[in-house]
Structure formats: structure tokens, C-alpha cells
Write a structure and sequence with these properties.
Elements: H1 5-15, H2 26-45, H3 53-62, H4 69-88, H5 94-140, H6 144-148, H7 151-155, E1 159-163, E2 169-172, H8 174-180, H9 192-196, H10 198-213, E3 218-226, E4 232-243, E5 249-258, H11 260-274, H12 284-292, E6 298-306, H13 308-315, H14 317-336, E7 341-346, E8 349-354, H15 360-374, E9 378-380, E10 383-385, E11 388-396, H16 403-416
Antiparallel strand pairs: 1-2, 1-5, 3-4, 4-5, 6-8, 6-11, 7-8, 9-10
Helix pairs in contact: 1-2, 1-4, 2-3, 3-5, 4-5, 5-11, 13-14, 14-15
Length: 425
């Protein structure tokens, strides 16, 4: 039987220790996680759909578990629970349990990212509204200094800055200066272009122009800022205008949120979902997506390893995994010269795609090169191991009508080239 919710809550509380600010006492943490653990257990047992884990993640974010390490610490807990179920549930299918754990973990990560983004945007909008309210009230009393240095500016945890109608910085709060890696004292007079960055300055100025003209009330953009220390900060910026009683724009006010961690987490989750965890190559799903929109003519090489089962049987799966890693490295090296894409689609099966392929001759030459590379002896833990490979090729002069048909044709061509002799020495 899968670990009970109460036990899971204790293990989970240990894993999340120190991941929330301000810190909670242990009793409060376990109380919070008890109900959430029940949700996870229900999803892992199949009593609810895996996507129910999204709500679990959202509840953690609502409880101020906003550090990306929350995901990194929770996923092992999910897989430990999965392992417990596989060990104790009579007649359980380990593969099915593992696949469900993967789905639950993926849904949890997706829910966490979405909730984190929603929380950040909510805070950003609330701060911008408060800052605008303070600025407009002060402006109506002609007290510009109060408008720029209202308490909401100084005390906000997000970055706030004011900009004149010519795009020059007037003032910023400490949070924005720290976010940009600059001193607050050095920022007045700087052009917005220095803060937004070259990639987005055209868009920023175009939207600032619309703000000044009154055609929009506010705008948002996400931009990367290269800090002086060489690190890149990803910033989500909202900007609005402060007008006087005649409607003339006095200055612009912006609220910035550092979304670097969130973006890195989203990028990592995308990478993990689209790449093979063992070899680092693109996985089946990503390969199919790339093939569906490839620029023709397209060359496809479908291959599997001959003798790989014998390697696993004789030396064990740890050695087999190392062999697959070496194969992945050799495939990447082999397709680099032609700008190809290599992917692992499962087990000991791999596939290669070459866009704008020059013809059958190029595919034949690539097949020979890959076979030569893959059949070179490799040394795994001081063991010399040699494997073989069978490769089938398909040349498409037009975009594939159906990816499945292309895969079937390549698979058939591959089997026509069997058997290739392989051995573990």
C-alpha cells in the first residue's frame, strides 16, 4: 500500500524545511501539508486525475512556498511514495506506477509555475495600483516629491521607478536598483534604453509613446537585463502614466518584478519534459514536433542497437545506461556537421533528422558515418564493449503528411538492414 498521507506529510515537511519565508514552526508546516499530502496520495493511487496535483502546488504557493527549490524538494518525495507503492502493493505494475508518478510530478511542477506567475502578477498589479493612487493624490496637490517618494515606493518588495516624458529615469526605489544590480544614486538621468535592453527597447518606446498619447492606460513587457556582474535578470515590467488635472502626462511610473527564478524553473521544466533524462537528447515528443515543422527535403535515420540486451544481461543496467550515454554523445557528434537533430525515442532506439537534406547520397554517407562511430569499441568501467547498430533511412522531398507514416517507413527500412552482429567482450 502506498505510504499513508500522515507519513507523507512528515517526510514532505522534512524536505521543505527552510523553503518558506517567513519561516513556519514545525506543527504549522505539518498541519498545512497534511491536507495537501492527502491530495498527492489520491493522485498517486489513481483516485483522482494527475492534474489534481496542480491545486496542491497552488496551495503551497499561497502559503508562501515560492522558492523554486520547493519543486526540487517535492518531486523526490513523490517518487519515494511511488517506490513504496511499487514495493508493497501486491500485483502492482511498477511501470504503470512509475508513469503515474511522472505525470503527478509533472502536473505539480506545472501548477507551481502557473501559481507562482499568478502570485507575482497579482502583487505587481496591486503595487502599481497603490503607487498610482499615491502619485495621483500627491500630484493633485502639486507635491511631486511626495509622488515620487511615497511610502509605497520605499517599502515595496517589488521594484518601482519613475520616468519623465523623454524616457529618462527620475527616481527608483531600493528594490529596483538591487534588481538591476545598480546603485539607486546613479540611476536618475539614465535612459530607459539602458534598463530595458536592446532586444526590447523598440517595443518599450513604442508602448511608452502610446501611453503618452493616451491610447493605452498601461503596458507590460518581459525583458532581460544584463547586470554589471555579468548575470542576466529577467524582469516583468508594468508601466502607467500619471497625469495632472488637465490630462497632461507629468511622468510615467513602472513596477518591476524579478522573474528570473520563475523563468529558469519554467525553462528547466520544459527541458525536462522534452528531453531524455539519461542521454540528454531530445525525446520522442520533441522530435515529432520538430519533424512536423521541418524544412523539406528531410532525411530521417532510424536506428536501434544490436547486442544491447546482451550488454544489460551480462553487465547490468548501470553499464547499459552508460552505453546509451556514449551512444547519445556519438550521435550528437555525428550529426553536428550536417546540422542534424538526434533524439532517443525509447529503450535502445534513436532517430536522426536532417533538414534541407541534399539527397539520398547525403543520407547514405551519414548512415555509414554513424555506423562507423557507433561500432567503435567503448570502455565502460574498464570493460571494453562493442555493440552494433541497424539503421534505416527515409528521404522526404515534401513535408511529411503524417509523422507516424514517416516513422513506420524508417522503422521498416531499419529492419531490412538487420541483423548487424554485436557483442559484449
Amino acid at each position: 500500500m502506498i505510504v499513508c498521507a500522515g507519513e507523507l506529510a512528515v517526510v514532505w515537511a522534512d524536505a521543505l524545511d527552510g523553503a518558506v519565508a517567513p519561516p513556519l514552526n514545525r506543527d504549522r508546516i505539518e498541519q498545512l501539508l497534511a491536507g495537501l499530502a492527502e491530495q498527492l496520495v489520491a493522485a498517486l493511487r489513481g483516485n483522482t486525475e494527475p492534474h489534481a496535483a496542480r491545486a496542491t502546488a497552488a496551495a503551497l504557493v499561497a502559503a508562501n512556498y515560492r522558492d523554486p527549490q520547493t519543486v526540487g524538494r517535492t518531486i523526490p518525495v513523490i517518487f519515494d511514495a511511488m517506490a513504496d507503492q511499487a514495493e508493497h502493493a501486491e500485483g502492482a505494475d511498477p511501470t504503470a506506477i512509475r508513469e503515474r508518478a511522472i505525470l503527478v510530478a509533472a502536473e505539480f511542477a506545472t501548477g507551481f509555475t502557473a501559481a507562482l506567475r499568478s502570485a507575482a502578477l497579482t502583487e505587481q498589479e496591486a503595487t502599481l495600483s497603490a503607487a498610482l493612487g499615491a502619485a495621483r493624490t500627491a500630484e493633485s496637490r502639486r507635491e511631486l516629491s511626495e509622488a515620487r517618494f511615497a511610502a509605497v515606493f520605499a517599502g515595496a518588495s517589488v521594484g518601482i521607478g519613475t520616468v519623465d516624458v523623454n524616457g529618462r529615469v527620475l527616481d527608483v526605489n531600493a528594490a529596483l536598483a538591487e534588481m538591476l544590480g545598480l546603485s539607486a544614486e546613479t540611476m536618475p538621468g539614465r535612459s530607459v534604453a539602458e534598463l530595458v535592453g536592446e532586444a526590447n527597447i523598440g517595443r518599450a518606446f513604442a508602448q511608452m509613446k502610446e501611453l503618452l498619447a493616451g491610447t493605452v492606460d498601461r503596458f507590460r513587457l518581459e525583458t532581460d537585463h544584463l547586470r554589471a556582474d555579468g548575470n542576466v535578470a529577467c524582469i516583468d515590467l508594468s508601466m502607467s502614466a500619471v497625469r495632472d488635472h488637465t490630462g497632461r502626462v507629468r511622468f510615467l511610473i513602472g513596477v518591476a518584478v524579478d522573474v528570473t527564478d520563475r523563468k529558469m524553473l519554467a525553462d528547466q521544466l520544459w527541458y525536462d519534459a522534452n528531453h531524455d533524462g539519461l542521454t540528454g537528447l531530445p525525446n520522442r515528443g520533441l522530435f515529432f514536433d520538430r519533424l512536423a515543422c521541418a524544412i523539406p527535403p528531410v532525411g530521417v535515420c532510424y536506428l536501434d542497437l544490436d547486442g544491447f540486451k546482451e550488454v544489460n544481461d551480462e553487465w547490468g543496467h548501470t553499464v547499459g545506461d552508460q552505453v546509451l550515454r556514449v551512444v547519445g554523445e556519438r550521435l550528437q557528434e555525428g550529426v553536428a556537421a550536417v546540422g542534424g537533430l538526434a533524439a532517443r525515442i525509447g529503450g535502445d532506439e534513436f532517430i536522426v533528422m536532417v533538414e534541407e537534406c541534399t539527397g539520398e547520397d547525403q543520407l547514405t554517407a551519414l548512415r555509414v558515418d554513424l555506423l562507423t562511430s557507433l561500432t567503435r569499441p567503448m570502455v565502460i568501467g574498464e570493460r571494453p564493449i562493442t555493440i552494433g547498430a541497424s539503421i534505416g533511412t527515409v528521404y522526404l522531398e515534401e513535408p511529411p503528411a503524417a509523422v507516424d507514416e514517416t516513422m513506420h517507413a524508417a522503422d521498416t527500412a531499419m529492419y531490412r538492414n538487420k541483423p548487424s552482429r554485436s557483442r559484449a567482450q
